[in-house]
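call fold(seq) -> tokens
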Amino acid sequence: MLRDEIIKAIEESGFDEYREISSSDLIFDEAVFSSCAENKCGNYGRNYSCPPLSGDMEENKARFLKFEHGIIINKIVDYGEFYENYATAGKEVEKALDHLRKLLDDKPVLVAGAGGCRMCKECAAITGEPCRFPDKRRYSMEGSGMDIVKMSMKFNMTYNAGNNRLGFFMIVMY
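ret:
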């Protein structure tokens, strides 16, 4: 059964928490989607999996809502007192997510995480070329308009773990 394979892959990839949900439980917010235009992460208009190149809010929502079920997953990382572990923490999350994607590569799922797609060293959007892997594009939860903070509260998951630890959220839709 697909659900069991996904849960096994999540556990094998080293995530700290997960919750099974229905796609109707997803929380989308136009303010989250619109905040991408402020380009704080540097991906706005420079990554095919981020706004505005990923589509408008309704297109991004539809990408997730075409699935009936989802599993929200969380990796809690230590940033350090003055964010000195920021790069290491990010790599830890990316490593776990890449491992999960590898385990689920041949499954009919959508795996989304934090930030834009990083399949290519430099996204083809920067040079105006077409996406090199349109069927494997990696979408951002926030870039799709999901309100991670509200969802973490709704499903009783750890967002701020205290002691300079923070939860990074990803989702597998199936």
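The mean pLDDT is 94.
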